[in-house]
Q: What sequence folds into this?
């Protein structure tokens, strides 16, 4: 089996989607299909990872991703450890690396890590000899989210190549945007990023995407619209004048859905700010695959855990 | 101590335009002559064949961390590290805890350096009390205490009015104001250069404009006041251009470049290694080329290291939380040789000038020369020796070096301070 991502001396990790080939991406997506039945039905749980221990290290709040990774590991028969910084020795001043090394000493076979600082999974991978899965590092990457978005697109549209996908909103602070861009471009989609210029770094163009700040001009061209959350926690102030103005310019409303193609697929990585990025009717409407994304996420995470933990040598 | 001679080396002294094979005679801690001796038998003869005999190198931009952060470096370990790099005089930045903002603080630095007995240490005083940019420090007292220049360093003076008054006031003492040019509003939260790489890595960027707007301000203020200003660690193409233009207008401005800014780029950040994290940050290849051109045409007359020690446990933290800065004293010479001499950008005399007489002029200190009567600070450089940079051999207390593993050529071997031999051969090989 091929490595899921970057290979260090002794083990493979999933640190990001940048640099993965189309063959590798497709291989993960194909394997995800195999895990759909077990992901949908607890009765069909598997035992592939029996005897393995997966540690979830979440240094930043998370609902979906943390639960999804935990469930994915258990549904494959692994044990899980949940770690969060409050109530741990980190609050006594223990360093991040020391904390992780201690967990490894307890016999952990893989580490799922989320952190507000980009590169933290990479730092762990330098010091620890078990597979590291990046569950989101600051504004850098969120590879399993990128995979589940692309998987959902492929599932609904039957393909990825040749589609036009818009990423709307806060591109600057979004790890979901980066992972999506890398995977979509590699798989042959056209990507348009759309948001206020203060939230769309001009350099993003060099990744091969188009920048257009007028959502109403972009929408009729799109097969898929992925609405990103405003990352209030990562922003400095003053990047746009008001939430009201943001909603007027970039909010997904029923009117905007009407102006889109009838079969437009609407994605949102969540958590969503209802009334800011999209209205409740749109979130719950027929174009939306938001909940499908969540269920697909479980299968994706089962697939990557399986690949990383059962890869020999 | 008496009389000794350093025999048969290639003597390079840019302060006198000397570059020839000759003997350097030292008598009673001072340079006696180059060529004919004082007519007495030398107590000792040092063979310098195949070596370059240079005035002791000066690094006018180092952080020694004492007082306050002795876990990273002390005046003694920093001064020892300097000697290992062939640097006989350092000027140390005032961002200690407490800051060097009083006569007593400056005198403490000099006292500790004397106790250590390695390189000369010249304190740089703070512009403002506590380096908070609000009120001028007692600059007269600092001058009495031995301060040779003034800066608030990494906490640049935000108020243009205070900077203007600092320049005027320092001018009265014949002292230069040193500027760390950074608009703190534009760099807030930034951890690397702003550009394609920061976008790709999701790390917050510091735009080149943050440096350029401040360089522009300092030049305008130096022009207004007629004071002497020195721009520390220029890292941007725009910054080099501004200094070049300022000099053309006759503004008394000098510029400095650090080895990492003309050998590394922001592409190095791709591995999230905090040994590539500093302020100003590593920029782009375009900026590297502009700095090299600035060194070549002497827009940037000074080479310095911005030696900034941090203990390994601090640098090992998550990237956002790791402190800015890298050490540089012990890699100064070989990295400059590789980037400037081997590429033909500078000749040996040009490069040594930027490490001796030019910083001496900015600081107004009587070092960096082999003129008869000068204090005998001398560095013997082996320009041929090939070696691999190994931070575990450093004399510095810290190891935050981005050049580990580099195969380089050239090294300081024998080092004299005031006629006293401080190092017979390099500990780095």
A:
């Amino acid at each position: 089996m091929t490595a899921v991502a970057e290979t260090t001396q002794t083990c493979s990790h999933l640190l990001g989607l940048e640099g993965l080939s189309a063959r590798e991406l497709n291989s993960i997506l194909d394997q995800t299909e195999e895990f759909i039945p077990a992901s949908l039905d607890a009765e069909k749980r598997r035992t592939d990872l029996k005897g393995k221990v997966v540690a979830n290290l979440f240094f930043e709040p998370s609902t979906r991703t943390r639960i999804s990774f935990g469930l994915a590991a258990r549904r494959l028969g692994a044990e899980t450890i949940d770690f969060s910084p409050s109530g741990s020795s980190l609050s006594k001043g223990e360093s991040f690396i020391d904390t992780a090394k201690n967990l490894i000493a307890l016999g952990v076979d893989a580490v799922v890590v989320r952190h507000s600082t980009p590169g933290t999974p990479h730092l762990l991978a330098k010091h620890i000899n078990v597979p590291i899965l990046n569950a989101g590092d600051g504004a850098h990457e969120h590879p399993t989210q990128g995979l589940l978005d692309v998987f959902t697109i492929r599932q609904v549209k039957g393909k990825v190549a040749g589609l036009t996908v818009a990423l709307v909103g806060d591109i600057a602070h979004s790890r979901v945007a980066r992972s999506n861009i890398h995977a979509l471009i590699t798989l042959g989609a056209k990507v348009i990023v759309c948001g206020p210029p203060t939230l769309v770094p001009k350099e993003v163009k060099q990744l091969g995407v188009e920048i257009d700040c007028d959502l109403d001009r972009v929408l009729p061209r799109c097969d898929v619209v992925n609405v990103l959350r405003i990352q209030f926690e990562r922003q400095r102030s003053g990047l746009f004048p008001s939430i009201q103005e943001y909603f007027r310019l970039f909010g997904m409303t029923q009117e905007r859905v009407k102006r889109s193609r009838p079969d437009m697929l609407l994605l949102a990585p969540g958590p969503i700010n209802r009334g800011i990025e999209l209205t409740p009717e749109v979130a719950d409407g027929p174009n939306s695959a938001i909940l499908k994304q969540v269920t697909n996420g479980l299968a994706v995470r089962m697939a990557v855990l399986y690949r990383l933990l059962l890869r020999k040598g | 101590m008496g009389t000794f001679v350093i025999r048969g080396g290639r003597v390079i002294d840019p302060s006198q335009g000397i570059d020839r094979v000759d003997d350097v005679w030292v008598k009673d801690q001072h340079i006696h002559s180059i060529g004919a001796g004082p007519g007495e038998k030398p107590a000792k003869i040092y063979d310098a064949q195949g070596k370059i005999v240079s005035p002791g190198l000066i690094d006018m931009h180092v952080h020694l961390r004492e007082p306050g952060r002795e876990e990273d470096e002390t005046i003694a370990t920093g001064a020892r590290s300097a000697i290992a790099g062939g640097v006989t005089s350092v000027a140390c930045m005032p961002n200690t805890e407490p800051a060097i903002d009083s006569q007593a603080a400056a005198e403490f630095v000099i006292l500790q350096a004397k106790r250590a007995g390695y390189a000369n240490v010249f304190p740089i005083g703070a512009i403002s009390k506590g380096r908070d940019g609000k009120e001028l420090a007692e600059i007269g007292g600092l001058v009495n205490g031995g301060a040779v220049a003034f800066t608030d360093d990494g906490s640049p003076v935000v108020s243009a009015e205070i900077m203007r008054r600092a320049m005027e006031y320092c001018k009265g003492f014949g002292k230069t104001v040193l500027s760390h040019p950074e608009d703190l509003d534009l760099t807030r939260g930034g951890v690397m250069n702003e550009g394609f790489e920061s976008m790709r890595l999701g790390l917050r960027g510091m735009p080149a404009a943050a440096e350029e707007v401040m360089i522009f301000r300092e030049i305008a203020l130096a022009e207004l006041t007629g004071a002497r200003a020195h721009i520390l660690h220029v890292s941007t193409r725009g910054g080099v251009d501004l200094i070049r233009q300022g000099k053309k207008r006759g503004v008394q401005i000098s510029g400095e470049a650090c080895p990492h800014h003309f050998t590394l780029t922001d592409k190095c950040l791709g591995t999230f290694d905090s040994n590539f994290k500093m302020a100003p940050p590593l920029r782009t290849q375009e900026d590297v080329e502009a700095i090299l051109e600035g060194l070549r045409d002497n827009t940037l007359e000074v080479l310095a290291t911005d030696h900034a020690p941090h203990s390994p446990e601090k640098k090992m933290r998550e990237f956002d939380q790791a402190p800015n800065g890298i050490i540089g004293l012990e890699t100064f010479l070989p990295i400059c040789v590789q980037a400037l001499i081997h590429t033909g950008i500078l000749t040996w005399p040009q490069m040594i000038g930027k490490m001796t007489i030019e910083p001496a002029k900015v600081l107004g200190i009587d070092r960096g020369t082999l003129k008869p009567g000068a204090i005998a600070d001398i560095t013997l450089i082996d320009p041929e020796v090939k070696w691999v940079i190994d931070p575990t051999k450093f004399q510095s207390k810290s190891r935050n070096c981005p050049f580990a593993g580099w195969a380089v050529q050239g090294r300081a071997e024998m080092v004299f301070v005031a006629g006293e031999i401080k190092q017979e051969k390099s500990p780095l090989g």
Chain A has eleven helices and nine strands. The beta strands of chain A are 53-58, 79-83, 110-115, 132-137, 164-168, 190-194, 210-211, 224-227, 265-267. Chain A has two domains: 7-141+295-309, 143-293.
